[in-house]
Amino acid sequence: MDISVVVPLFNEAESLPELHTWLKSVMEAHGFTYEIIFINDGSTDNSWEVIQKLRQTDSYVRGIKFRRNYGKSPALFCGFRAAQGDVVITMDADLQDSPDEVPELYRMITEDGYDLVSGYKQKRYDPLSKTIPTKLFNATARKVSGIPNLHDFNCGLKAYRREVVKNIEVYGEMHRYIPYLAKNAGFGKIAEKVVQHQARKHGKTKFGGWNRFVNGYLDLLTLWFMGSFGRKPMHVFGFLGSVMFFLGFAAVVAVGAIKLKAICSGTPAPLVTNSPYFYIALTMMLLGTQLFVAGFLGELISQNAEGRNNYQIETEI
Ligand code: UDP
Ligand code: MG
Fold first, then answer.
1. What is the pLDDT of residues 188-247, one digit of tens each?
2. Which helix (H) or strand (E) holds 51?
3. 115 lines ligand 1 (CB under 6 A)
4. Cα–Cα distance for residue pair 254/126, rounded to 1 Å
5. Backbone phi, then psi, for 193, in 5-degree steps?
6. Which of 145, 267, 113, 146 is nearest to 216 (CA)?
7. CA-closest candidate to residue 182, choices 302, 104, 90
8. What residue's CA is closest to ligand 1, atom 19?
9. What is the arrangement of strands in the sheet containing 34-40, beginning at the earlier edge strand?
10. What number does the ligand 1 atom closest to the CA of 8 have?
11. Ligand 1 atom closest to residue 92's alpha carbon, by position in its atom list
12. Smallest-distance ligand from the CA of 15
């Protein structure tokens, strides 16, 4: 099978028939063998009934129905698990992404040899409250992830070689950083393609809240940490702990030296608690110990983790 189209959706009943017709006509015009997997993420409207109807008329349609709303990442995860096509294309259900982009995305994966091609909504039809924070978000993500050529990490329209989606785990709200997940898994051939974007026709955005910025940055931090130290937590905690401990030790020496100097010169020795070094010594040594403990705990956890020996093996001969 050439293409699996994976469509996560939450209350998008009005858009689904048009999306399906459009996708079908593009696929047939190019002679692709394909499947369309709709993942109904706990919709409370009649999206599932619509998907059932589409399935009755078109056996290329598949549907997965969540019992409740889990979020876009879990929906993508289950779509990826089910996908059988050589190239997997994700796309939002709200018709903001155009199915006409599919053939070129497919070509870039199969002919240009990219692992992942991300859409880039250069001209975006979203309110300013979405587009401005997004610029900042992408600039940070480019820096942290080390993927300098991506302008639009979170674009819903993306194409992947099948191995990529079978070897990454999109959980929580990590759909914002799939290129980074892919890179961490060793799929480094990542490109972008400028894509057409349209204003939402029906319904409204599911990602309007402010908390997504905070959560987005925290997720980025998590990914950076997991990519750099996930398999060797002691290297970061042990290093920081050593630095703290060394500073604390130096402060102890300073406290002792001040006291000794006073005793030797016969002046009445000051109380150690009067010295700022005393407090530095105290906090630094405590912090240092804590960090070391965190490092040991991290190592214990990663040693017992089920996936501790899951490495990305490309081929064996
Ligand atoms: N979506 C989902 N589960 C959710 C929220 C959103 O499956 O909990 C789907 C939604 O139906 C749409 C896609 O994710 O197909 C992108 O959502 P939306 O268009 O609201 O995001 P925006 O384009 O405004 O960033
Ligand atoms: Mg949208």
1. 999 999 999 999 999 999 987 788 888 999 999 999 999 899 899 999 999 999 999 999
2. helix 47-57
3. no
4. 60
5. -135, 130
6. 145
7. 90
8. 205
9. 61-65, 34-40, 3-9, 87-90, 158-161, 116-120, 190-194
10. 7
11. 15
12. 1
